[in-house]
Design brief:
Blueprint (H helix, E strand, L loop, with lengths): L8 E2 L12 E7 L2 E7 L3 E7 L4 E7 L3 E8 L6 E11 L5 E11 H16 L7 E6 L8 H15 L3 E6 L5 H8 L8 E5 L1 H18 L18 E5 L5 H7 L4 H10 L2 E11 L2 E6 L2 E5 H9 L9 H12 L5 E8 L5 H7 L23 E2 L5 E7 L1 E5 L3 H9 L10 E6 L4 H12 L4 H4 L7 E4 L1 E6 L8 H6 L1 E4 L2 E4 L4 E14 L3 H4 L7
Parallel strand pairs: 9-10, 9-11, 11-12
Antiparallel strand pairs: 1-13, 2-3, 3-4, 4-5, 6-7, 7-8, 13-14, 13-25, 15-19, 15-23, 16-18, 16-22, 17-18, 19-20, 20-21, 22-25, 23-24
Helix pairs in contact: 2-6, 3-4, 7-8
Length: 511
């Protein structure tokens, strides 16, 4: 992910130790003597025995803290405790501490140079605004922050301003007036919903500070002035998983400290020529709107309302068909693949359970404004802020260069229940199989912007009409005045603290 494009890595500067030649000395680690070497990028300690040498090392970029304390039994010796992180299976980051026993002056010399490496890293945050949603997920955010995250931040000597939010959209209110120049990191202790609020709050704040209007369709938001860190404590934690590689609170906290950054995309949603919201994860329509619409009527069930509603809609309700007019735009290099997405699948498999169909010509049409148009029946659409394949491949292939000018619009044609269940199983397991193979029932197109219009809409005062006007944006229901909307991509606007191998330089762990 390039600097100027969406979802691109900002490669951090390495720690620099001023000495050009490695500093080397002997220290005791436990009962054994080690030769300790400090180069410009690495701390190495090596123990020799009669048969072999045992070597350990830590990148200076992965140091969390270093401290020297005088030995209690010897006035000229000290103990130097070095804390760093190492990556385990499933991208878990774990704390490691090694204590070196040696001459006081030598310990202090090593400590000073390692601390210099920590202090001179421009990518690391120094002061954080921490916003905690006390009711998200299973209402564990405050407890997890105080018991798990806060001690980690304290050890790394991070300054924090902690605010527990009190109501919906409180995050946006805070960001509207907070002194953003006093911080270089915003930590969200919650889930995707609060990340969505933070993104919208920052868009509006930047627009205000620069004399712009977010309601202006010509306004293009710049990159956010602060980097966002996500501590997964919500109902949905997709952004945290995409940034850190797992749902682990400890790994997320260390990702913030180390300061590696990934730039997420931002989308703007307009409807009926009015701004609806900015989205930072996904937007869904049709079936996905029905799910969020029904789930909101079951808020008393807490986090269980989402899986219960989804199961009900899939297994016990018929899929609502929609005649949609879809217009979309993408760079020319995606024209062929986008056209192929609509080249098959003219036969209705709800009436043909075997799913047999013959190839037909693509029914897309180019319009005068350079957008591709198609009118067809669908049951659902969902658009991701980052290409779905990139979410996986940046962890699997450290050198992978993701798409930066488009994202994925995944559509669902009328299909059988079993076809949908098989697709959904791949989807929730982050399988990118459906992005590799053309599936006639689930066409995937690359888009930089798109418009959707529901044809033959029901009256807005009916239950059907209300459902048709619900859009699922980042897991929140938005009620549209009319069943039409326009979505536009702004690449790389949201810097996020991450643990992505292509950014951190660590190899992908063995699964």
């Amino acid at each position: 992910m390039a600097e100027s494009a969406g979802s691109s890595p900002a490669t951090p500067e390495e720690h620099i130790v001023t000495s050009e030649t490695p500093e080397q000395a002997s220290f005791s680690v436990g009962k054994h003597i080690h030769t300790v070497s400090l180069s410009q990028t690495t701390l190495t300690w090596q123990r020799y025995n009669k048969k072999s040498a045992e070597t350990n090392s830590a990148r200076l970029r992965d140091l969390i803290a270093v401290d020297v304390k005088d030995a209690t039994t010897n006035e000229i010796r000290s103990k130097m405790a070095v804390v760093y992180v190492t990556q385990k299976k499933d991208f878990l980051l774990r704390r490691v501490q090694v204590t070196f026993d040696g001459e006081r002056d030598r310990c202090e010399s090593f400590r000073r140079k390692m601390q210099e490496a920590i202090d001179t890293c421009k990518d690391r945050p120094r002061r954080l605004l921490v916003l905690i949603n006390p009711v998200s997920g299973f209402s564990t955010g405050v407890k997890k922050y105080r018991n798990v995250v806060a001690p980690i931040f304290e050890e790394a000597k991070l300054e924090t301003d902690v605010i527990v939010t009190e109501k919906a959209h409180h995050t946006e209110e805070i960001l509207a007036t907070y002194d953003l120049k006093s911080i270089n990191g915003l930590v969200i202790v919650s889930g995707d919903g609060m990340y969505h609020e933070a993104a919208n709050g920052l868009v509006r704040r930047v627009a205000t500070d620069t004399g712009n209007d977010v309601n202006n369709p010509d306004y293009e938001p710049p990159e956010f002035p602060v980097t966002i860190g996500l501590i997964p404590c919500g109902t949905g934690n997709g952004i945290a998983r995409a940034a850190v590689g797992n749902y682990d609170v400890v790994s997320a906290a260390y990702s913030v400290i180390l300061g590696y950054k990934w730039k997420n995309n931002l989308f703007r949603v307009f409807s009926n020529r009015k701004l609806v919201t900015y989205k930072s994860l996904l937007s869904g329509f049709g079936l996905w709107g029905d799910v969020i619409y029904s789930a909101e009527m079951r808020r008393s069930m807490g986090v269980l309302r989402y899986p219960v509603t989804l199961i009900e809609r899939i297994f016990f309700k018929s899929f609502r068909r929609m005649s949609l007019t879809l217009k979309f735009r993408a760079p020319p290099e995606y024209s062929e693949s986008n056209d192929n997405a609509f080249r098959t699948g003219g036969r209705d498999t709800a009436e043909n359970p075997e799913g047999e169909s013959s190839a037909i010509k693509s029914n897309t049409m180019q319009t005068a404004d350079g957008m591709t148009t198609i009118t067809e029946e669908f049951i659902a659409s969902i658009c991701f802020c980052n290409p779905f394949k990139s979410i996986n491949q940046v962890f699997i292939q450290p050198g992978y260069q993701p798409e930066t000018t488009v994202s994925d619009l995944l559509l669902c044609r009328p299909c059988t229940k079993m076809q949908f269940i098989k697709f959904f199983a791949k989807f929730i397991n982050f399988s990118d199989e459906f992005t590799e193979n053309v599936n006639e029932k689930f066409p995937l197109v690359k888009v930089s912007e798109y418009e959707v219009t529901l044809n033959n809409a029901s009256p807005p005062d009916t239950d059907a009409g209300r459902r048709e006007r619900v859009m699922n944006v980042d897991g929140e229901p938005y009620h549209l005045e009319e069943p039409n909307f326009h979505v536009k991509l702004f690449p790389g606007r949201i810097p996020v603290f991450c643990n992505i191998p292509s950014v951190t330089g660590r190899p992908s762990p063995t699964k």
